[in-house]
Amino acid sequence: MNPANLVEISGLSISFGNNTVIDNISMALMQGEITTLIGPNGAGKTTLVKAVLGLLTPTEGVIQRSATLRIGYMPQKLHIDTTFPLTVERFLKTAAFASTADRHQALQSVRAENLLKQSVHSLSGGEMQRVLLARALLRKPELLVLDEPAQGVDINGQTELYKLIASIRDKYNCAVLMISHDLHLVMAATDQVICLNHHICCSGHPEQVSTDPSYIELFGIPGAEDLALYSHHHNHRHDNHGDILPLPDKQESDHTACGGHH
Ligand SMILES: Nc1ncnc2c1ncn2[C@@H]1O[C@H](COP(=O)(O)OP(=O)(O)OP(=O)(O)O)[C@@H](O)[C@H]1O
Fold first, then answer.
1. Within 13 Å of residue 147, how many CA atoms lie on the same side as its CB?
2. Residue-range domain boundaries for the chain
3. Helix 155-172 to helix 125-137 angle, to the nearest 10 degrees?
4. What pLDDT does residue 3 have?
5. With pLDDT > 70 as the criterion, what percentage of the chain qualifies?
6. Are 109 and 169 in contact (CB under 8 A)?
7. In this protein, which residues make up the domain named ABC transporter (predicted)?
8. How far, in Å, from the CA of 192 to the mean position of ligand 1?
9. Three-state secondary structure along the chain?
10. Which residue, 223, 191, 220, is CA-closest to 208?
11. Residue-wise pLDDT tens digits, 30-70
């Protein structure tokens, strides 16, 4: 394993019965780098994240983690019984073992110190996400895993949240692996984008991915035709289920192909 990597994935496939959800994926997560997983519903993003967390066993392939890797995980949603009175402070106490100073520091890192005594039930979408992020930070993670961190947050709050995630990466020098549906919002705060549709359709810096034909095919950016597309060799296309089909002919391949790394 390369010592610069915290996690190294090679040839990973995960199937549920006959359904291959992750198909021969290789990638690495590096210290200090933000990796964003992007892909349509059902593409396998959460499955891949669960495998990285060690919650799912690979059907094929290997996931290597650095020996003492500490992971902080922020779930997509947390359902808390509304009849159960719970302040942010108590909520954070239920997470990892942490001192009062640690809790204050974590809340400070997400700019939510003022919420300490507030009920979790009265938080806005954006505030709740910050508290969940603070909770993930209590473990002093080397790898922070975030499943759609901006879900339920209004558009201004989303931009703020992604900036916050980038500042947390700077402060903790941790790796970040996050799932997002919105590349243009995360662009400024991402080093590596992996466009997933069971296999890796394309990957690289966000600018590169956002102009990749396979990304445009999946997400249909308005006005994509006006973008200067960078071209590369396409060797397949997808049907509506994301399954791989051979290219029908050369002309059609420009708009239906999924190229990039395999
Ligand atoms: N434990 C499981 N057993 C059987 N099928 C599963 C299981 N977990 C996930 N799947 C299936 O795997 C596919 C990928 O699911 P996954 O949740 O990884 O997708 P996703 O990319 O995160 O989707 P979304 O964007 O909708 O959250 C789906 O078709 C799902 O039904």
1. 16
2. 77-140
3. 10
4. 84
5. 84
6. no
7. 7-222
8. 23
9. CCCCEEEEEEEEEEEECCEEEEEEEEEEEECCCEEEEECCCCCCHHHHHHHHHCCCCCCEEEEEECCCCCEEEECCCCCCCCCCCCEHHHHHHCCCCCCHHHHHHHHHHCCCHHHCCCEHHHCCHHHHHHHHHHHHHCCCCCEEEEECCCCCCCHHHHHHHHHHHHHHHHHHCCEEEEECCCHHHHHHHCCEEEEEECEEEEEECHHHHHCCHHHHHHHCCCCHHHCCCCCCCCCCEECCCCCEECCCCHHHHHHHECCCCC
10. 191
11. 999 999 999 888 999 999 999 999 999 999 999 999 988 99
Structure tokens at 105: 């520091």
Q: In ligand 1, which atom is closest to the CA atom of 39?
A: 21
Instruction: Give the number of other CB atoms < 10 A from CB of residue 113.
Output: 15
ipTM of the shown complex: 0.97
Task: Among 46, 146, 177, 197, name the best residue to mutate to test ligand 1's pocket (greatest count of ligand atoms within 8 A of Cβ).
Answer: 46
Rounded to whole angstroms, the Cα distance separating 213 from 232 reads 9
Q: Which residues line ligand 1 (CB under 6 A)?
A: 16, 21, 39, 41-47
